[in-house]
Write a structure and sequence with these properties.
393 residues, Arc Repressor Mutant, subunit A, Tetracycline Repressor, domain 2, elongated, 19 helices, single chain
Length: 393
């Protein structure tokens, strides 16, 4: 190859050696020898071996994004575009396992990766998903009353955990076969069901609209006309349910305190599977967010460490996550949950989605004003909607 080796030649030599020998035992000298250059030539292009590995991943990600856009080309309907993106992600990772291992175990487990130019390509991928979700809302296909950033994190987290499961099992399961069951859960969370719009509770919509406007503008500055517009009802309809604005104001605490009382009553004797599921998800969020040191360790050093999946510690997590299986089976038995739910995929959506959200909160820390409690509450609602048999929710 001679001394005219290009940056791409060096990347190809490095990828070949790292794939066959492993990252930690591969040296810069070995890479240089395989590329036919002096060690110093590598340092002309790359700061160190870490930069080299991140750049390999970046090259793959560029190709991945190009292929993804080709697959999405000509697909206009949002659900179909989303389904194709989920399938493409899983199919790509199961057919290019070396790339998936590098991305998850060697790049995304390293804090420095999030300061590297290759990470911007990961952000572009997330933007593609965000565009599909936003387009679905604008076309009236996806609900406009959910936080799509939370939805995005749930989807990406589920895809991560699907890939981690495939990489950590001996037979390397083909996760692309799960696309229909993943989309079944996602569509239940965000797709507008006609029955949902058919007979809405107008009084509840009016109260929720008033609550929001009173909080944003203040009680005195809010008019009945504004409340009616936000609730999507005629102004006269407000007076069918409430005597005046003050009556509407006092209806808010009546509603909320009743909800709180009902919730507290359930603390002592929870029977309904949906209440159990919501309680478990809330508990999971609170438990881990009040243990940030452990959570940071889990996010970077455990879930993205292939050796973790061979340890006895995994059995403890499986026992913990098994509680979700028990709740789901109970809900399927009494008819409150859809019998078609795949427990494993739902758990990937729950735990993977939580990890994606927590990573943004604790590691990336880019959204300084984000409301973690609000996002957690939204995740609970979305995950509950994903499994319920009551499609009017």
């Amino acid at each position: 190859m001679g001394n005219g080796a290009t940056r791409e030649d060096i990347l190809a030599a490095a990828e070949d050696l790292i794939s066959s020998k492993g990252l930690h035992v591969t040296t810069i000298s070995e890479i240089a020898a395989k590329a036919g250059v002096a060690d110093s030539v590598i340092y002309h292009y790359f700061k160190n071996k870490e930069d080299l590995v991140f750049s390999i991943t970046g090259n793959h990600m560029r190709d991945f994004l190009t292929l993804l856009q080709e697959h999405l080309e000509g697909i206009l309907e949002p659900v179909s575009r989303l389904s194709k993106m989920v399938w493409f992600h899983l199919r790509h990772n199961e057919t290019r396992k070396d790339y998936a291992r590098k991305l998850l175990f060697e790049c995304r487990s390293n804090r420095n990766f999030y300061q590297h130019s290759s990470y911007e390509l990961i952000r572009q991928y997330g933007d593609t998903l965000s565009t599909i979700l936003t387009d679905g809302v604008e076309r009236g296909v996806f609900r406009d009353d959910v936080d799509m950033r939370v939805v995005q994190n749930l989807i990406l987290g589920a895809l991560d955990w699907e890939t981690l499961r495939s990489l950590s099992t001996k037979d390397g399961e083909n996760t692309s076969a799960d696309v229909l069951e993943i989309m079944d859960l996602v569509r239940a969370m965000i797709e507008i069901r006609h029955v949902y719009r058919k007979d809405p509770d107008k009084s509840m919509r009016i109260i929720v609209a008033a609550e929001k406007l009173f909080a944003d503008k203040g009680y005195r500055q809010t008019s009945i006309a504004e409340i009616a517009r936000l609730a999507d009802v005629a102004e006269g309809t407000v007076y069918e349910y409430f005597e005046n604005k003050e009556d509407l104001l006092f209806s808010i605490p009546r509603l909320r305190f009743k909800e709180h009382i009902d919730s507290l009553t359930g603390l002592f004797q929870i029977r309904a599977p949906m209440s159990k599921l919501r309680r478990f998800i809330r508990y999971h969020f609170v438990l881990y967010l009040t243990q940030p040191e452990f959570l940071k360790t889990f996010l970077l050093d455990l879930q993205l460490n292939p050796r973790f999946y061979q340890t006895e510690a995994l059995a403890f997590f499986q026992e913990y996550s098994g509680i979700v299986d028990e709740i789901l089976e109970e809900g399927k038995s009494d008819g409150s949950f859809r019998p078609s739910i795949n427990n494993g995929i739902f758990k990937n959506l729950l735990f993977g989605g939580f990890c994606h959200m927590a990573f943004r909160w604790l590691i990336l820390n880019t959204d300084y004003h984000l409301d973690k409690l609000s996002e957690a509450h939204e995740a609970v609602s979305l995950l509950a909607r994903a499994v319920t048999s009551d499609q009017t929710r």
